[in-house]
Amino acid sequence: MPAAMLHQRLAELESNVRLLVESIRSPDAPADVGLPSQEAFSRIIAAEQRRIEIRTEVCPPKARDQTAWSILVAAYRAHDEGKVLSVTALGSFAHAPTTTALRWLDELVAEGLLTSRPDETDRRRRRIAISCTGRSALRAYAAKIGAER
User: Fold this and answer.
1) How confident is the prediction along the chain (149 residues), in pLDDT tens digits per residue?
2) Are the C-beta atoms of residues 70 and 94 closer than 8 Å to each other?
3) DSSP-based helix, strand, coil % in the chain, nearest 5
4) Axis crossing angle, helix 66-80 with helix 98-110, rounded to the nearest 10
5) Domain ranges in the chain?
6) 62-147: CATH architecture
7) pTM assigned to the model
8) How many CB atoms lie within 10 A of CB 62?
9) According to a count of CB atoms within 10 Å of the terminal CB, is the N or C end of the chain lower?
């Protein structure tokens, strides 16, 4: 991801965090109650920016979008728990409408990061699982994050 896009994404993230904090702050509370210091906030944002950079470095292009990433993470966790998920469940984990989740699932299956098969009990449904390639991408990401701590 080009540096300009990273900086734009970071600015959007900072703006969203500030809006979230403002929306949950009590109108009677002092401005800094419960909020991290500017230094701590800057560290949090820098760490988030680094995670985005690492995802860009180690993951296939289709896995870099936030919705696609959320779907992959949910599929990985389901794999660890011995579950296979439905399209609806993955869309819910990704906080995406079912139509958006379907579009991304098709992309991620085509990229070889997920597998899809018909549900044996209901042919209208698809069962989604993370593939070996998808697990490898998330492991590479986790290894890189872990190595930098």
Assistant:
1) 566 666 677 777 777 777 666 655 555 545 555 667 888 888 888 888 898 899 888 888 888 888 899 999 999 999 999 988 888 888 888 888 888 889 999 999 999 999 999 888 888 888 899 999 999 999 999 998 887 76
2) yes
3) 65, 10, 25
4) 80
5) 3-58, 62-147
6) Orthogonal Bundle (1.10)
7) 0.69
8) 19
9) C
